[in-house]
Write a structure and sequence with these properties.
alpha+beta, two-stranded antiparallel sheet
Length: 72
């Protein structure tokens, strides 16, 4: 039977985190805080925030991170 903590650990890994990092966490609150740190630290696979000023720009991956690319 899965527990909430195990489900949160699975989510942590799905967001790109390393299971070994959270192996010792045994509470829901601890896992939620670990997920928040992962997401706010850019560890999760996310796209950068954009505004209408970014219209027409192109993104590319450089060294594992999204960056604006030159348009040809």
């Amino acid at each position: 039977m899965d527990t909430n903590v195990l489900a949160l650990k699975n989510l942590y890994v799905a967001f790109g985190g390393d299971l070994a990092t959270v192996a010792g966490i045994n509470t829901n609150a601890g896992m939620i805080n670990a997920l928040a740190a992962l997401v706010s630290g850019g560890g999760a696979s996310t796209l950068p925030a954009v505004t209408s000023e970014d219209n027409g720009k192109i993104l590319t991956v450089v060294d594992g991170s999204w960056e604006v690319a030159a348009r040809n």
